[in-house]
Write a structure and sequence with these properties.
It is found in: Cell membrane. With 305 residues, this protein is mainly α. Helices cover 75% and strands 0% of the residues. The relative contact order is 0.11. The model is unreliable at 1-9 (pLDDT under 50).
């Protein structure tokens, strides 16, 4: 009798596996921040053109995710958090991931240029290159500043959205970039505090691996202090107003307070309670960016100062 439990090789990839290849959770933030940057820009866009522009930015974000999974499949297989991804699990081959990433890169850039303007399309192309080559291939495995410099890739989408509407860059879009750029390190370092074993096994030089958790805690708190002025500064631009100012003030007080709590904790305390405070701060950081950009949308609807 045949053994029905015998291993028959990797399962055939389904549609959901190719969707997962595009990192939809990460892409959701890309889509939302790009939409906000486009919608609150001073130059109105045709709703259909705006929808297509955001769609093509989303495809570009998905392309970046696919290229990242293609190159990082070796370390993804080692890390518990990422071992179930389509490529390391064997559901999608590395060649297929590369093909999807390159195809979507070309398609998204070309279509954004036709739908909006070529400045925005060039900006999208640079963002894909920055995430796939500068961050994934170069920085991620070579320096503890990987997430600091590489975080720029995740901060570009609202600037691309703004460029779709205006054809250029403004102070407001630069401040939206700064908000995400300075938020990224404490967000990922909070994750690294309780996932440090994964990064150690994979040989990724996160700050927790190269300098230890104590130094990482100081850096997290320091970045919350640097972040707050840029986030609040947006309130006093053409896209800001009293509602955004109130929301940003509350969020930044909470974020700084969380960073201070992390700074004061010893490793013994953190290990004893299973890094509950660090995990809570990581979840808080997810809401921080979303609520800032949601507040910008609401402020746009309400009108500014």
């Amino acid at each position: 009798m045949a053994d029905t439990n015998a291993y028959e090789g990797p399962a055939e990839a389904g549609f959901g596996d190719y969707v997962a290849l595009l990192k939809p959770r990460v892409m959701s933030l890309v889509v939302f921040t790009a939409f906000v940057g486009l919608w609150i820009a001073p130059v109105p866009m045709n709703p259909f053109v705006a929808f297509c522009s955001v769609l093509f930015i989303a495809l570009g974000g998905g392309a970046s995710g696919a290229l990242n999974m293609w190159y990082d499949s070796d370390i993804d297989a080692v890390m518990k958090r990422t071992a179930g991804r389509p490529v390391p699990s064997g559901r999608v081959s590395r060649d297929d991931a590369l093909a999807v990433g390159l195809a979507l890169s070309g398609l998204s850039v070309m279509m954004l240029g036709l739908a909006a303007n070529w400045f925005a399309a060039g900006f999208l192309a640079f963002t894909i290159f920055f995430y796939a080559v500068v961050y994934t291939i170069w920085l991620k495995r070579s320096t503890p500043q990987n997430i600091v410099i590489g975080g720029a890739a995740g901060a570009f989408p609202p600037m691309i959205g703004w460029a779709c509407a205006t054809g250029g860059i403004g102070l407001e879009s630069l401040l939206m970039f700064a908000l995400i750029f300075f938020w990224t390190p404490p967000h990922f370092w909070a994750l690294a505090l309780f996932m440090n074993n994964d990064y150690t096994k994979a040989g990724v030089p996160m700050l927790t691996v190269t300098h230890g958790r104590r130094v990482t805690r100081r850096h997290i708190f320091g970045y919350t202090l640097v972040l707050a002025p840029f986030a609040i500064w947006l309130a006093f631009t053409s896209v800001g107003g009293p509602f955004y100012l109130a929301v940003s003030a509350v969020l930044n007080v909470m974020f700084i307070a969380g960073g201070w709590q992390i700074l004061r904790r010893s490793e013994e305390q953190a290990e004893a309670d299973g890094y509950k405070v660090e995990k809570r701060y990581f979840r808080q950081s997810l809401y921080y960016t979303f609520l800032h950009f949601l507040a910008l949308l609401v402020q746009h609807w309400m009108g500014g100062w």
